[in-house]
Amino acid sequence: MRDFQLTPGIRQLINALHKRGTDVYLVSGGFRRLICPVADILGIDRKRIYANEILFDKNKNYAGFDENELTSDSGSKDLEKMELKFKELTYFDRDYLIENQSNVGKPAVMGLLKKQGYKNLVMVGDGATDLEASPPADAFIGFGGNQIREAVRARADWYVTDFEVLRKELEKNQ
């Protein structure tokens, strides 16, 4: 795997969140194989990653991605396929998926986290699919440190271009 560079300030922000006892999840439309090394560097449990699974055939050629992953779609999804993927979920969570079948993609992940007892969910992201997650997330912080998207900036509850701003705000509110 090639070396990659993390966005400045992200390590410090994640460390500050962990020190507060805040659970951190990575919710991405990207591929789990690429996200896991980042989670490892940041000290985020791999069980707290919601991302797409890339598929390969028996000859190890690319064969697509698992369309049953919640993050594989930001539009409607076939509920039966979704149910198959989430067999390991509690019946409570599966009932939530049935009741909210139009709630897919990142919003569905936020909804599941809410049903698991999380309060005050905040989504931080740079794209439209991140913005879609609020609600059910209680707030959305737009991030423009890598790329500024005006549509995201315009609709975000709060918009920052530097993770240090968020970390300092956490310090003030301890």
Automatic annotation (TrEMBL):
<comment type="pathway">
    <text>Amino-acid biosynthesis; L-serine biosynthesis; L-serine from 3-phospho-D-glycerate: step 3/3.</text>
</comment>
<dbReference type="InterPro" id="IPR023214">
    <property type="entry name" value="HAD_sf"/>
</dbReference>
<keyword id="KW-0460">Magnesium</keyword>
<dbReference type="GO" id="GO:0005737">
    <property type="term" value="C:cytoplasm"/>
</dbReference>
<keyword id="KW-0378">Hydrolase</keyword>
<keyword id="KW-0028">Amino-acid biosynthesis</keyword>
<keyword id="KW-0479">Metal-binding</keyword>
<dbReference type="GO" id="GO:0006564">
    <property type="term" value="P:L-serine biosynthetic process"/>
</dbReference>
<protein>
    <recommendedName>
        <fullName>Phosphoserine phosphatase</fullName>
        <ecNumber>3.1.3.3</ecNumber>
    </recommendedName>
</protein>
<dbReference type="InterPro" id="IPR050582">
    <property type="entry name" value="HAD-like_SerB"/>
</dbReference>
<keyword id="KW-0718">Serine biosynthesis</keyword>
<dbReference type="GO" id="GO:0000287">
    <property type="term" value="F:magnesium ion binding"/>
</dbReference>
<dbReference type="Pfam" id="PF12710">
    <property type="entry name" value="HAD"/>
</dbReference>
<dbReference type="GO" id="GO:0036424">
    <property type="term" value="F:L-phosphoserine phosphatase activity"/>
</dbReference>
<dbReference type="InterPro" id="IPR036412">
    <property type="entry name" value="HAD-like_sf"/>
</dbReference>
